[in-house]
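User: Hi! I'm working on a homework problem where we have to compare a predicted structure to a textbook description. Could you give me the structure for the chain below?
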Amino acid sequence: MKNIRNFCIIAHIDHGKSTLADRLLEMTNTISARDMQAQVLDDMDLEREKGITIKSHAIQIDYPFKGEKYILNLIDTPGHVDFSYEVSRALAACEGALLLVDATQGIQAQTISNLYLAIENDLEIIPVINKIDMDGAMVEEVKDQIIELIGCKPEDILLASAKTGLGVQEILDAIVARIPAPKGNPDEPLQALIFDSVFNSFRGIIVYYRILNGTLKKGDKVKFVSTDLVYEADEVGVLKLTLTPKNEVRAGDVGYIITGIKNAKEVRVGDTITLAANPTQEMIKGFQEVKPMVFAGIFPVETDDFEELRDCMDKLQLNDASLTYELETSQALGFGFRCGFLGMLHMEIIQERLEREFNQTVITTVPNVSFVAHTSNGEVIIVNNPSEMPEPTRIERIEEPYIRAQIITKPDYIGNIMTLCLGKRGNLLNQSYLTTTRVELIFEMPLTEIVFDFYDKLKSQTRGYASFDYSPIDRRDSDIAKMDILLNGDKVDALSALIHRSKGAEFGRKLCEKLKELLPRQQFQIAIQAAIGAKVIARETISALRKDVTAKCYGGDISRKRKLLEKQKEGKKRMRQIGNVEVPQEAFLAVLKLDE
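Assistant: Happy to help. Predicted structure tokens:
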């Protein structure tokens, strides 16, 4: 065990984590030159296209150092704020972390929040400054920022360029020298932490774990503590580029187990695996339940596909434990799911993955956050969905979630950020200069305002120079109202939204204008209205398509024409009563992109 090192790489998005992982694998010959490609650990097409890591990936590296063989278990983690849950799971399986900072950009918000996560887990931190070969590298300034942040010595900071491979050898040596070997006893009862699982259509569910104590052998009867179910270990092994079977996996190792489990509900990330014959008495602590921030409905385009969509959601949840969902029905869209996501990027990724990996085309409703409504008779109702909102007459008060947002940017953009955040009902708590060229702003603001397009707007207002991280604080009383969209007097429940009353009129007007462009014209007039309660706050009208019924009248008396027009008018009136308005899928998507 003294020759095992478990570590992960933490950094802000786009600071070169995946590239550094590639170099580590290349220099230790873990991957042959033939299999080498950029972002080798990112196995989803989506990750390569967007240049982001979505899933944590584990791989074992063999490294000879001073005449001894060492085993390094690397877990490559995401950098985007929406996937910090993946990072927290990876940290639970490690003893050390490489803190990677881009020499051209300095410390960003997500670096700081991931660093605090690592310090909470008591990990050994190795600071690395990456991209030192670039023209805009500010090595000395970034060194000072790191020293101020973690209080290390200047000589502890490693300089590297993951792209060219410069300094990677020193990083490998530092991992062996500075990260402590895992503690644990191979002879104690088995205690292993599940940090990930994937679904394989041939083998069932493959569970990834880190063994803290004990030994797991092939053929052992294992028990999952939280579900209390017992299985046989058909195959155990370690994670190389592909799964490599072994006869036993010992304390301190990161490995996988295949037990032929088919049901996704039986595996919980963060659960403890132990032996059925000699179980451990305690579960592994420090694992947090995931808290979804944004809720949206996902519905199949064809109602017949509902069962298939349910299976796909089960499989997806295995691979992404931060996705939560429950059944929901809508008058407009039929059966579907109410899903909880960690943020808007997470929601977009899930939608993309459903389409690519499972061939499911889905309709997503307006995203919203969860509110708490207190009724006049003392009931407390959690509202995740506009249709769950009680009648306005019964509501005494509504609480909405607030967050603490941390924005790090250049001083030139302070004005833009202030305007943006104050316009989103934000409240500035603190403004401090980290260095002469970096300023940290801390706001308190409602989560509702961030859900739609805050991240995109922040990037465009600051030319991409702002980094953003947030954490929930509490719930506060707020004037939230439910806005309904009516087509010819009928409510379309899938387009309802919960919104702050002060923003209602503006949002309603924009939505009605957008729907006017998107809804196809009918033979009768369509009235689009946005209403809060019984009060209509915005209206647009789509005029009817009409046939020229007077074309056949050539000359003659005006009364002949009038008679035909009156008859047409009657028909239109009757058609409007029985006609229904088809809402195309683009209309539901339009709500998500109102400001474009």
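For your comparison, note the following. The first strand starts at residue 4 and ends at 10. The mean pLDDT is 77. Good luck with the assignment!
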